[in-house]
């Protein structure tokens, strides 16, 4: 019991109430009842609102409420059901009412009612979903209860059958069958069944299955289930007819068919399959087939067989080899599926349709061998090989190529060939590739540079061909890459050695020519003065006249001076030829010219009357400095010697690169040279123009100092217009001194 005041506060609660409500007396006194517990409806489980509570209604209306069922959930404990009553108490001589709440635990009763309702709902749900007829039958055969969702299937209305014997409702012969089946089920306490055809014209042609089942070990009655199996019976009859036709097809069809009847434990095969396996019968056992399966394929065969036997209705496809009588194997492509089931759902028939794919498998084997050969040739080739897609990405590379380029395969196969090709080689490569795609060429070969993983470029020989797809469109490219860096280095060495050999040959030829010229110089230039001296001495011996002797002495002195000058010039030539240590250094043309102007100024040349201009597009070269100074000195001084009278002297020097050559040009507007007379002798040991009757060696030495290092000098000139000396050096012959 709980006693509330007018405000709904608890003023008294007995121990039984605190136990039922899960409260403590000390904690509830003075508190409102609605704030202590939350009751819910028994129907929908919703929480009672304050205005719905019986004791709250009593406080408001003064009315009493009896036995209101309310639910209460306390913590994790099972739900508790309570019967709650509320009565208004008003003592004599008091105007303030109180409410007495009486609480009774009715959990067991309510739970029983709910369980009963639940079972009733379940039963109605089961019956409403059934297409069968159910009867509860006593051992005597009396029908105690009946249920059906399809009353039209009954021979009699259900209410007419209840409390009557099942044996009295049917003809005697059918009643005897019912009695035998039902009594057997009672006697053995097992499930029994039978099939029968409707005995009444109202349901003529309808077939039924009667199935009896004991309700429980403690219950003496039977549950009888009657189901309409007319469609199943018809299907079975049709299946039997189809079986006859199917066997005819099996025996005469060209297809490789295998029909396994699990109920008869026999396998029927088509005539074509029997012929394929060299069998003389179309009826065999499954073991005969298993014994012919190739050992490597037996697990796959058994796997599919097990799946089918377990009732899996999936279509299974498998390839396996089956042995012929001569020991050879035939490849079969087979599709297996369960085509029939027993009443309990177990498969009773499996069909397998096969096709001979021996020829196809032989082709596949040839392809496999071909691919294996290609793979062996590809992976283990001593030449780097790659399959490249149409965008240039490496699809597959062998280890040789990885070794050549220094990249692991997983990195290389994420790159394009454009990414690791030298910029100067990409255009040529892509041009060839475009011609290959157009079909203008079958393949191409080129030398190109690839970027090694370590950052340097290596020279390779690349050969590319193309593979097309079935539509004759480019599928991918096959690249063969060979490292030729060592060959390139050897060729460079060979070219350098060849160049040096050419230089040596040129030097030898120059030396021979110069020796010949030197012999001519000695023979020609010394012979004349020496002969003059000998002749003058002879004349002096025969001469008695003093004045005449003086004249001869004067001639003799001139001849002697001339001879000495020639000897000095020859000594200068020999000094140049003798030089063995020649050091190359960077010589700037502007600095050399300034030095020469200074030297010539000291010798009396007036440069105020000379205009010297330059166009040095190339500022300097590696050369022997003394040689280059001598070349500048001789050519500039030669221009100064042969100035035209009354004409301002102009000298223009020019230097520039021209391909693999360097050109150095000296141009003046002097007297010029008659090339028809003097051109052939210009650079020999004689001077076309004599100054004070003294032969010069300047141009002779200039030519020597130029040709010494593989250079060449040519002259163009017109009398009265000026002269142009053009010196040509080969770049590759200036890289180091020549002995």
TrEMBL record:
Q: Which domain of life is it from?
A: Bacteria
Q: Which InterPro entries match?
A: HATPase_C_sf (IPR036890), HATPase_dom (IPR003594), His_kinase_dom (IPR005467), HisK_dim/P_sf (IPR036097), PAC (IPR001610), PAS (IPR000014), PAS-assoc_C (IPR000700), PAS-like_dom_sf (IPR035965)
- Which residues does the UniProt record annotate as the domain PAC? 316-369, 444-496
Keyword vocabulary terms for this entry = Coiled coil, Kinase, Phosphoprotein, Transferase
Molecular-function annotations in GO: phosphorelay sensor kinase activity
User: Keyword Coiled coil, does the record have it?
Assistant: yes
PROSITE patterns linked to this entry: HIS_KIN, PAC, PAS
**Is Ribosomal protein a UniProt keyword of this protein?**
no
Domain Histidine kinase residues, every copy = 521-733
Catalyzes what?
A: ATP + protein L-histidine = ADP + protein N-phospho-L-histidine
The record's listing under Pfam families reads: HATPase_c (PF02518), PAS_3 (PF08447), PAS_9 (PF13426)
Q: Where is the PAS domain?
A: 1-44, 370-440
Coiled coil ranges: 491-521
Q: Which residues form the signal peptide?
A: none
E.C. code: 2.7.13.3
NCBIfam families, per database record: sensory_box (TIGR00229)
The name this protein carries in UniProt is histidine kinase
Q: Which organism is it from?
A: Dyadobacter luteus
């Amino acid at each position: 019991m709980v006693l509330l005041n007018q405000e709904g506060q608890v003023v008294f609660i007995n121990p039984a109430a605190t136990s039922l409500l899960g409260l403590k007396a000390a904690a509830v006194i003075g508190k409102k009842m609605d704030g202590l517990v939350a009751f819910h409806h028994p129907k929908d489980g919703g929480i009672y609102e304050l205005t719905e509570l019986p004791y709250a209604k009593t406080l408001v209306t003064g009315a009493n409420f009896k036995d209101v069922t309310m639910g209460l959930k306390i913590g994790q404990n099972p739900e508790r059901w309570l019967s709650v009553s509320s009565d208004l108490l008003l003592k004599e001589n008091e105007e303030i009412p109180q409410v007495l709440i009486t609480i009774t635990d009715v959990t067991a009763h309510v739970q029983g009612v709910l369980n009963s309702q639940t079972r009733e709902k379940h039963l109605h749900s089961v019956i409403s979903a059934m297409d069968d007829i159910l009867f509860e039958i006593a051992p005597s055969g009396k029908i105690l209860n009946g249920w059906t969702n399809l009353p039209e299937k009954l021979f009699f209305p259900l209410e007419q059958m209840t409390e009557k014997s099942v044996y009295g409702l049917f003809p005697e012969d059918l009643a005897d069958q019912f009695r035998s089946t039902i009594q057997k089920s009672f006697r053995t306490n097992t499930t029994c069944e039978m099939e029968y055809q409707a005995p009444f014209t109202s349901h003529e042609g309808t077939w039924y299955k009667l199935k009896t089942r004991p309700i429980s070990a403690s219950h003496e009655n039977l549950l009888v289930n009657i189901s309409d199996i007319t469609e199943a019976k018809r299907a079975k009859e049709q299946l039997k007819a189809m079986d006859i036709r199917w066997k005819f097809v099996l025996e005469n069809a060209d297809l490789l068919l295998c029909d396994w009847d699990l109920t008869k434990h026999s396998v029927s095969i088509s005539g074509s399959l029997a012929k394929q396996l060299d069998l003389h019968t179309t009826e065999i056992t499954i073991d005969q087939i298993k014994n012919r399966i190739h050992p490597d394929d037996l697990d796959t065969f058994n796997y599919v067989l097990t799946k089918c036997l377990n009732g899996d209705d999936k279509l299974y496809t498998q390839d396996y080899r089956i042995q012929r009588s001569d020991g050879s194997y035939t490849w079969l492509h087979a599709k297996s599926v369960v085509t029939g089931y027993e009443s309990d759902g177990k498969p009773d028939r499996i069909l397998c349709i096969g096709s001979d794919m021996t020829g196809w498998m032989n082709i596949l084997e040839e392809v496999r061998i071909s691919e294996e050969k290609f793979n062996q040739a590809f992976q283990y080739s001593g030449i780097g090989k790659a399959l490249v897609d149409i965008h240039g990405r490496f699809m597959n590379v062998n280890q040789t190529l990885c070794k050549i380029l220094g990249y692991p395969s997983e990195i290389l196969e994420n790159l394009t060939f454009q990414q690791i090709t030298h910029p100067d080689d990409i255009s040529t490569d892509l041009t060839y590739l475009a011609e290959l795609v157009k079909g203008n060429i079958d393949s191409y070969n080129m030398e190109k540079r690839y970027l090694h993983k370590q950052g340097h470029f290596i020279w390779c020989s690349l050969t590319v061909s193309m593979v097309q797809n079935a539509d004759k469109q480019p599928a991918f490219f096959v690249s063969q890459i060979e490292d030729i860096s060592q060959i390139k280095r050897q060729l460079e060495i060979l070219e350098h050695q060849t160049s040096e050999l050419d230089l040596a040959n040129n030097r030898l030829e120059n030396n021979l020519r110069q020796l010949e010229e030197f012999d001519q110089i000695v023979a020609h230039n010394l012979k004349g003065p020496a002969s003059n001296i000998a002749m003058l001495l002879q004349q002096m011996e025969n001469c008695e006249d003093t004045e005449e002797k003086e004249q001869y002495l004067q001639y003799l002195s001139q001849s002697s001076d001339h001879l000495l000058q020639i000897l000095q010039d020859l000594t200068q030539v020999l000094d140049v030829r003798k030089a063995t240590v020649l050091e190359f250094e960077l010589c700037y043309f502007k600095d050399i010219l300034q030095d020469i102007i200074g030297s010539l100024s000291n010798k009396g040349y007036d440069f105020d009357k000379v205009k010297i201009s330059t166009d040095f597009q190339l500022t300097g070269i590696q050369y022997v400095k003394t040689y280059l100074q001598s070349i500048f000195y001789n050519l500039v001084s030669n221009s100064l010697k042969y100035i035209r009278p009354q004409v301002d002297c102009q000298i223009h020097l020019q230097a520039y690169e021209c391909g693999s050559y360097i050109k150095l040009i000296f141009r003046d507007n002097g007297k010029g040279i008659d090339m028809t007379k003097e051109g052939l002798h210009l650079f020999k040991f004689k001077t076309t123009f004599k100054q004070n009757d003294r032969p010069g060696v300047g141009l002779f030495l200039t030519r020597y100092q130029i040709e010494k290092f593989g250079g060449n000098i040519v002259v163009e000139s017109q009398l009265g217009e000026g002269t142009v000396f053009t010196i040509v050096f080969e770049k590759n012959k200036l890289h180091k001194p020549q002995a």
